[in-house]
Amino acid sequence: MATTVTPEPLTALSRWYLYAIHGYFCEVMFTAAWEFVVNCNWKFPGVTSVWALFIYGTCILIVERMYLCLKDRCNVLLRCIIYTLWTYFWEFGTGFLLRQFNACPWDYSEFKYNFMGLITAEYAVPWFCASFIVERLVIRNTLRLRFDEVAESGQAEERLDRGGGGRGGRRGRGARAGATSANGYVKVD
What is the number of alpha carbons within 13 Å of residue 162 lying toward its C-beta? Predict the structure, then answer.
Protein backbone atom coordinates (compact mmCIF):
# COMPACT_ATOMS: atom_id res chain seq x y z
CA MET A 1 0.00 0.00 0.00
CA ALA A 2 1.45 3.34 -1.07
CA THR A 3 1.71 6.12 1.46
CA THR A 4 0.24 9.41 0.40
CA VAL A 5 2.00 12.58 1.39
CA THR A 6 -0.06 15.70 1.91
CA PRO A 7 1.52 18.71 0.23
CA GLU A 8 3.13 20.97 2.81
CA PRO A 9 2.50 24.71 3.12
CA LEU A 10 5.29 26.93 1.87
CA THR A 11 7.96 27.70 4.42
CA ALA A 12 8.33 31.21 5.78
CA LEU A 13 11.47 31.60 3.68
CA SER A 14 9.61 30.55 0.52
CA ARG A 15 6.81 33.01 1.25
CA TRP A 16 9.36 35.73 2.06
CA TYR A 17 10.97 35.10 -1.33
CA LEU A 18 7.63 35.42 -3.15
CA TYR A 19 6.80 38.60 -1.25
CA ALA A 20 10.25 40.04 -1.95
CA ILE A 21 9.95 39.40 -5.68
CA HIS A 22 6.42 40.84 -5.68
CA GLY A 23 7.54 44.01 -3.92
CA TYR A 24 10.58 44.37 -6.14
CA PHE A 25 8.47 44.03 -9.28
CA CYS A 26 5.85 46.49 -8.03
CA GLU A 27 8.55 49.01 -7.13
CA VAL A 28 9.97 48.87 -10.66
CA MET A 29 6.50 49.17 -12.20
CA PHE A 30 5.52 52.05 -9.90
CA THR A 31 8.68 54.02 -10.65
CA ALA A 32 8.21 53.42 -14.38
CA ALA A 33 4.61 54.65 -14.21
CA TRP A 34 5.68 57.63 -12.07
CA GLU A 35 8.35 58.56 -14.60
CA PHE A 36 5.77 58.43 -17.37
CA VAL A 37 3.16 60.51 -15.52
CA VAL A 38 5.61 63.14 -14.26
CA ASN A 39 7.99 63.38 -17.24
CA CYS A 40 5.98 61.73 -20.05
CA ASN A 41 8.90 59.36 -20.57
CA TRP A 42 7.79 56.67 -23.02
CA LYS A 43 10.82 54.53 -22.15
CA PHE A 44 9.17 53.68 -18.79
CA PRO A 45 12.46 53.38 -16.91
CA GLY A 46 11.62 51.58 -13.68
CA VAL A 47 14.26 51.53 -10.97
CA THR A 48 14.79 50.14 -7.51
CA SER A 49 17.53 48.88 -5.24
CA VAL A 50 18.54 45.41 -4.19
CA TRP A 51 17.64 46.56 -0.67
CA ALA A 52 14.02 46.48 -1.83
CA LEU A 53 14.08 42.67 -1.79
CA PHE A 54 14.80 42.60 1.94
CA ILE A 55 12.54 45.56 2.69
CA TYR A 56 9.46 44.28 0.84
CA GLY A 57 9.96 40.61 1.66
CA THR A 58 10.19 41.26 5.39
CA CYS A 59 7.48 43.92 5.44
CA ILE A 60 4.95 41.74 3.63
CA LEU A 61 5.82 38.70 5.74
CA ILE A 62 5.00 40.78 8.82
CA VAL A 63 1.79 42.02 7.15
CA GLU A 64 0.94 38.35 6.57
CA ARG A 65 1.22 37.73 10.33
CA MET A 66 -0.96 40.78 10.96
CA TYR A 67 -3.52 39.49 8.47
CA LEU A 68 -3.68 36.11 10.19
CA CYS A 69 -4.17 37.78 13.58
CA LEU A 70 -6.63 40.45 12.44
CA LYS A 71 -8.74 38.79 9.74
CA ASP A 72 -11.43 37.65 12.20
CA ARG A 73 -11.19 40.71 14.44
CA CYS A 74 -11.66 43.71 12.14
CA ASN A 75 -12.82 44.57 8.65
CA VAL A 76 -10.60 44.98 5.62
CA LEU A 77 -10.71 48.79 5.75
CA LEU A 78 -9.29 48.90 9.27
CA ARG A 79 -6.74 46.20 8.43
CA CYS A 80 -5.50 48.18 5.43
CA ILE A 81 -5.18 51.30 7.56
CA ILE A 82 -3.10 49.28 10.03
CA TYR A 83 -0.99 47.85 7.19
CA THR A 84 -0.46 51.36 5.80
CA LEU A 85 0.69 52.66 9.18
CA TRP A 86 3.00 49.66 9.49
CA THR A 87 4.36 50.35 6.00
CA TYR A 88 5.19 53.93 6.97
CA PHE A 89 6.88 52.74 10.15
CA TRP A 90 8.84 50.08 8.24
CA GLU A 91 9.81 52.47 5.44
CA PHE A 92 11.01 55.05 7.95
CA GLY A 93 12.90 52.49 10.04
CA THR A 94 14.65 50.78 7.15
CA GLY A 95 15.34 54.11 5.45
CA PHE A 96 16.79 55.56 8.65
CA LEU A 97 19.01 52.51 9.13
CA LEU A 98 20.20 52.51 5.51
CA ARG A 99 20.85 56.24 5.65
CA GLN A 100 23.41 55.62 8.42
CA PHE A 101 25.46 53.78 5.79
CA ASN A 102 24.65 56.20 2.97
CA ALA A 103 22.66 53.38 1.36
CA CYS A 104 19.05 54.63 1.45
CA PRO A 105 17.79 54.34 -2.14
CA TRP A 106 14.94 56.86 -1.78
CA ASP A 107 14.68 60.50 -0.82
CA TYR A 108 11.32 62.21 -0.49
CA SER A 109 12.80 65.60 0.45
CA GLU A 110 11.20 67.24 -2.59
CA PHE A 111 7.70 66.22 -1.47
CA LYS A 112 5.75 68.80 0.50
CA TYR A 113 4.64 66.49 3.34
CA ASN A 114 7.81 64.48 3.87
CA PHE A 115 9.43 63.61 7.17
CA MET A 116 13.23 63.60 7.08
CA GLY A 117 13.00 62.67 3.40
CA LEU A 118 12.28 59.08 4.43
CA ILE A 119 8.48 58.99 4.28
CA THR A 120 5.88 61.23 2.70
CA ALA A 121 2.17 61.66 3.28
CA GLU A 122 1.62 61.96 -0.47
CA TYR A 123 2.06 58.20 -0.71
CA ALA A 124 -0.71 57.37 1.79
CA VAL A 125 -3.26 56.45 -0.88
CA PRO A 126 -0.83 54.35 -2.96
CA TRP A 127 0.35 52.54 0.20
CA PHE A 128 -3.26 51.94 1.24
CA CYS A 129 -4.12 50.54 -2.20
CA ALA A 130 -0.98 48.42 -2.17
CA SER A 131 -1.97 47.08 1.26
CA PHE A 132 -5.37 46.06 -0.07
CA ILE A 133 -3.82 44.32 -3.09
CA VAL A 134 -1.19 42.62 -0.95
CA GLU A 135 -3.79 41.19 1.42
CA ARG A 136 -6.44 40.24 -1.11
CA LEU A 137 -4.26 38.91 -3.91
CA VAL A 138 -0.75 38.22 -2.74
CA ILE A 139 -0.96 37.01 0.86
CA ARG A 140 -4.22 35.09 0.58
CA ASN A 141 -3.07 33.25 -2.54
CA THR A 142 0.44 32.64 -1.24
CA LEU A 143 -0.98 31.06 1.92
CA ARG A 144 -3.02 28.70 -0.27
CA LEU A 145 0.06 27.41 -2.09
CA ARG A 146 1.46 24.03 -1.10
CA PHE A 147 4.75 22.48 -2.08
CA ASP A 148 4.34 19.10 -3.72
CA GLU A 149 7.10 16.55 -3.27
CA VAL A 150 7.20 15.84 -7.02
CA ALA A 151 8.81 19.02 -8.27
CA GLU A 152 10.62 17.83 -11.38
CA SER A 153 8.48 18.00 -14.51
CA GLY A 154 10.11 14.80 -15.76
CA GLN A 155 8.98 12.97 -12.64
CA ALA A 156 5.43 14.22 -13.04
CA GLU A 157 5.34 13.15 -16.69
CA GLU A 158 6.77 9.76 -15.75
CA ARG A 159 3.99 9.28 -13.20
CA LEU A 160 1.41 10.19 -15.83
CA ASP A 161 2.92 7.65 -18.24
CA ARG A 162 2.74 4.95 -15.54
CA GLY A 163 -0.88 5.79 -14.76
CA GLY A 164 -0.07 7.59 -11.53
CA GLY A 165 -1.99 10.70 -12.45
CA GLY A 166 -3.84 12.34 -15.27
CA ARG A 167 -7.56 12.21 -15.86
CA GLY A 168 -9.35 10.65 -12.99
CA GLY A 169 -6.09 10.18 -11.11
CA ARG A 170 -4.54 12.14 -8.31
CA ARG A 171 -2.90 15.45 -9.09
CA GLY A 172 0.31 15.35 -7.10
CA ARG A 173 0.93 13.09 -4.15
CA GLY A 174 -1.84 13.38 -1.65
CA ALA A 175 -3.32 16.40 -3.38
CA ARG A 176 -6.87 17.14 -2.38
CA ALA A 177 -9.76 17.29 -4.80
CA GLY A 178 -9.96 20.73 -6.33
CA ALA A 179 -6.20 21.25 -6.20
CA THR A 180 -4.11 21.97 -9.24
CA SER A 181 -0.42 21.25 -9.58
CA ALA A 182 2.23 22.96 -11.65
CA ASN A 183 6.00 22.95 -11.24
CA GLY A 184 5.82 21.32 -7.83
CA TYR A 185 3.41 23.83 -6.33
CA VAL A 186 -0.13 22.85 -5.49
CA LYS A 187 -2.77 25.52 -5.16
CA VAL A 188 -5.50 24.35 -2.82
CA ASP A 189 -8.96 25.72 -3.54
Answer: 8
